[in-house]
Amino acid sequence: MIVANIGDFNQSTSATTFAMAVGTVSVGDLVIIFTHQGNGDCTSITDNLGNTYTKAYAYSWFWYEDVYYSTITVAGSSTLTATSGAAGYLTAQAWRATGMQSTPLDKTAGNEAGSTTPSVTMPSATATTYELVFGMFINYAATPTSATPSSGWTKHSSYNSTDGDTMDVLYQGTTATGTYSPGGTYSTSQSWDGLLVSFKGNSALVSGTLPNLFFF
């Protein structure tokens, strides 16, 4: 497996739709989108190529968090459109992975609390040896506050929304079946919520550059 962030997006004007250009996608890629919005659930994601995006999980406490994914069947230069149930400021991170199984979704979970240690517990052991596990955390501090990831987890970057919330997306590639729980540490106690999603791969996660090819 190879994984890379392909876009960080922040809606500057309150609206129910938001377009996000994520670059070239190839047949067989897994594209994953994490969204956060203050006023309404993300009800759909579509692209200009005709690929189908499925909601893997939704979680809400203060705001609304969702994760969508698609195994790409139509290659090309992709622009995603997210639609929300109410106007607001959408924040999103998009990811692209190669070397994934054709029916990739495995585990999902959510959690919320007020603490310095955001975490989500995987509900049961992974179904396969090689999986790509993500955790997304949102906190609601008046001053943007990011989480330091726990050992074994990698964070692309923190991203601050127009309405002042902070999104942290962590990931880990597995090499054995088991329960993997993303988490981290805030410097001060925060109100946060988070979600976990894992996807089945064909091989271990390795460092590398994603190919900008339309077909494998």
Describe the structure.
- The protein is mostly beta strands.
- It has one domain.
- The chain contains no helices and 15 strands.
- The C terminus is likely disordered.
Number of domains: 1
Order of adjacent strands in the largest pleated sheet: 1-8-3-6-5
- Please, what is the average pLDDT? 87
Q: Largest sheet at a glance?
A: 5 strands, antiparallel
Question: Could you tell me the number of beta strands?
Answer: 15
Beta-strand content bin: over 45%
Overall geometry comes to globular
Which structural class do you get from the secondary structure elements? Answer: mainly beta
Report the helical percentage: under 10%
- Number of continuous helical runs: 0
In angstroms, what separates the terminal alpha carbons? 14 Å
Regions with little confidence, pLDDT below 50 for 5+ residues: 208-216
Secondary-structure element string: EEEEEEEEEEEEEEE
Taking Cα atoms only, what radius of gyration do you get, to the nearest Å?
A: 16 Å
Note the main attributes of this structure.
0% helix, five-stranded antiparallel beta sheet, disordered C terminus, mainly beta, 216 residues
List the helices and strands and how they pair.
Blueprint (H helix, E strand, L loop, with lengths): L1 E9 L4 E11 L4 E8 L4 E6 L6 E7 L3 E8 L4 E13 L2 E8 L1 E16 L15 E9 L8 E2 L4 E7 L5 E8 L10 E2 L4 E12 L15
Antiparallel strand pairs: 1-8, 2-7, 3-6, 3-8, 4-7, 5-6, 9-15, 10-13, 10-15, 11-14, 12-13
Quick structural gist:
The strands form four sheets. The chain has a five-stranded antiparallel sheet with strand order 1-8-3-6-5, with no helix packed on it. The chain has a five-stranded antiparallel sheet with strand order 9-15-10-13-12, with no helix packed on it. A three-stranded antiparallel sheet has the order 2-7-4, with no helix packed on it. It is built from no helices and 15 strands.
